[in-house]
């Protein structure tokens, strides 16, 4: 069985690599029990450092739309050059809900 692939950056997520489940529609905005995607932890943290819960629910509720956001597109281009187990702190404060 092959490793799952992160729908944001397209890199594999090997066993033992930091990963987390991203609710495509935030739970606070009605997404509880809705679709979710398994992401690298660094990719998930970048999404929440970039977008508010309202923006995620309104405009960025699929991996395809997330990849169109300018800051996330720049992040993806950067992180794709790193190995799947790469970890780093996300700069800046987390966005408000």
UniProtKB/TrEMBL annotation:
Molecular function per GO: endonuclease activity
The UniProt record lists the keyword Cell membrane: no
InterPro entries reported for this sequence: HNH
Alphabetic keyword roster: Endonuclease, Hydrolase, Nuclease
Pfam families: HNH
Keyword Transport applies: no
Ranges of residues in domain HNH: 6-49
Protein name in the entry: HNH endonuclease
Taxonomic source organism: Leisingera daeponensis
